[in-house]
Amino acid sequence: MNYTRAIFLISDDVRAVLATYECGDNAARTMFKTLDTEIKTDDYVVVPTNTRHEMTVVKVVAVDVEPDLEAGADLQWVIGVVNRVNFQQITNQENDAINKIKVAELKRKKRELRATMMEGFDDEIKALPIYTAENGGTEKKE
Known about the structure:
- Helices cover 30% and strands 20% of the residues.
- By secondary structure, the protein is an alpha+beta fold.
- The chain has a six-stranded mixed sheet, with no helix packed on it.
C-alpha cells in the first residue's frame, strides 16, 4: 500500500481531485487530495512541486474521484484554491481604462491634425460635399 493514500482509509472527508498542469483535453491528469469541500471542476489550485518555489498552479478537471489505494505514485495535498475574482475585477477595470485612454488619444490626434494640417482651409473643407454627407457619402437611388 502507498501510505500517502492511507488517509482515504482514515477519513471519509478527504476528496481526490484530478488536475492538469497544461491546457488541452489530452493533457496528463494528476491526482491530488484535499479536505476542501468547495473545490470544483475548472477551479485553479496551488499544489506542491519540485520546481520554482516548490508550488505551482493546476486546473481541476474532475472532483470526487475514487483513488486507487494500491497505486504506486505518491498523492500530494492541494495547498489551496486560487481566488481569481479580484484579479479578474482589476484587469477588467484596467482594460476599461485603457479603452478610454485610446479613445481620448484618438480624439486628441484628430484635433491636432485638424489644427495643423487644415489650418486656413476651413471654408474650403466645409464646402466639400463629403463634409455633410450622410450614410458614408452614398445616396439612395430610387
